[in-house]
Amino acid sequence: MFDKNLWNKNDIFELEQYLDSIKNVDKIEWTKRIINTNLNVLAIKLPLLKNISKKILKGNFVSFLDVMPSSSFEILTISGYLISEIKEFKVQKKYLKKYALKCDNWSNCDTLSFKIKNCEEKYLSLSKELIKSKKPFVRRIGIDILFSLLKTDNYLDEIYKILDSFYDENEYYVNMVNAWLLCELMIKYRNQTIKYLENNKLNEFTINKCVQKCRDSFRISKKDKEMLLKYKK
Hints:
Blueprint: H1 9-21, H2 28-35, H3 46-57, H4 61-67, H5 73-84, H6 89-100, H7 106-110, H8 120-130, H9 136-147, H10 156-164, H11 172-188, H12 190-197, H13 204-216, H14 222-227
């Protein structure tokens, strides 16, 4: 049913019917509130969606992405899992930009993952392109890409500059992912991040939420948790 040689609209309809048949009616309203989406929600557990994606990957999964349905949160999530498995940068970029325009919630954004080895500069450029979007969840995906660049300190200066560029950001879900990114920077690159904090242009929400996340983290010392309080606005 899933590993098809060529996906068409009828195949997508059959998949939609199957997903509807396994929906969790009791969890739909709760899930919709947590995700905060206007998409139809079926409340199917993510491991099951990932398992379906793995089966689609055995066939011509790119033809699935050519159709890229968004009739439900779950079927769009499947597209996110498939895009994350694309190894060629240009192909992933093509479908990622199409996918980003369909996202209206944090979960579909954060479903994505990026294999950036030997393509770091290209992904940094893509991030900078996406964060210029007027659509908040496209901007969030642009920030999500930056997490993959934290394996080395080669791009710290660029990342700090990008964070500063959001000084007047007013979208909650964009500010939240920035706070999360800054917390990761504090954990992985403490000294450089403290130096950045001394002269940052972060908006009040982002820095305060970052301090909160750091103080909740088991990966940050008690001493640093107290020290970070001085950066609250």
